[in-house]
């Protein structure tokens, strides 16, 4: 009872302490909550990391054994293939050796026989010697033939020269230049002059009309022949033949030089220069040194045009000319050449003596 009374007496103090403790607990609750969360997260992280580490070790172990198994399988397969390749190579090498030995034996026995090859080369050498002998004889024959031909040409030249200089032959009274009295024997040219016969030069005969007709007949060999009786309204073969072989007779205008006018002008200038009395330059009485006077209507003086203004006036730029001479117009065509072998005239015109 005394304790209860004591509590009753200290009730306000106890309530104040409880309130103070409740406030302090409420104040510290959030801090403790954060601390508990931190501790729990750290513990849970440690547990999860240890579990993940365990799982990684297990996965690594499984992968290691699986890769070992696969590597062993691949090694066995490659080893098997390598053994097969070695066996094939061994068989191929032995087959090559067998074929090499057999082919060498076959070629030496049936293809490249040494003694038959030696006999073949001996026959070729003998044949070559025969051909070389024939070629040597043929070369000597050609050389002798060429010398004989050259000798004949020299003799012909000497005879031709002797015919031209036959007046140098010796006579009974006067010896020639090739038969001097100081020589023991006459020269070879003297003997040739005595043996050759002097020939008078042939006179050139003026061709007549019949000969011209014969010449025209010979020219027809190079052209297709003309029919004697053409069908239809055609000209006679004689007119066609005259027209075909008619010589070209251009007019005076065609025969004149194209630059005859310029040449004549140059000759006239030279003749004028020869005929004039003095060489002083002619000067007129107009004085060109005075300034240009002002216009009666305008007030500004005359101003020389600038380069741009001169270019605008289309002055000729002689630096761009291809030639120093000016432009020359072309002449029209010459109708004489267009009429050649297209017009018919009288036959006597072709063989006129003019």
From TrEMBL:
<dbReference type="InterPro" id="IPR000048">
    <property type="entry name" value="IQ_motif_EF-hand-BS"/>
</dbReference>
<dbReference type="GO" id="GO:0005737">
    <property type="term" value="C:cytoplasm"/>
</dbReference>
<dbReference type="GO" id="GO:0000922">
    <property type="term" value="C:spindle pole"/>
</dbReference>
<keyword id="KW-0175">Coiled coil</keyword>
<protein>
    <recommendedName>
        <fullName>Spermatogenesis-associated protein 17</fullName>
    </recommendedName>
</protein>
<keyword id="KW-0677">Repeat</keyword>
<dbReference type="GO" id="GO:0005516">
    <property type="term" value="F:calmodulin binding"/>
</dbReference>
<keyword id="KW-0112">Calmodulin-binding</keyword>
<keyword id="KW-0963">Cytoplasm</keyword>
<dbReference type="Pfam" id="PF00612">
    <property type="entry name" value="IQ"/>
</dbReference>
<dbReference type="GO" id="GO:0007051">
    <property type="term" value="P:spindle organization"/>
</dbReference>
<feature type="coiled-coil region">
    <location>
        <begin position="121"/>
        <end position="164"/>
    </location>
</feature>
<dbReference type="InterPro" id="IPR051185">
    <property type="entry name" value="ASPM"/>
</dbReference>
<dbReference type="InterPro" id="IPR027417">
    <property type="entry name" value="P-loop_NTPase"/>
</dbReference>
<dbReference type="GO" id="GO:0051295">
    <property type="term" value="P:establishment of meiotic spindle localization"/>
</dbReference>
<dbReference type="GO" id="GO:0000278">
    <property type="term" value="P:mitotic cell cycle"/>
</dbReference>
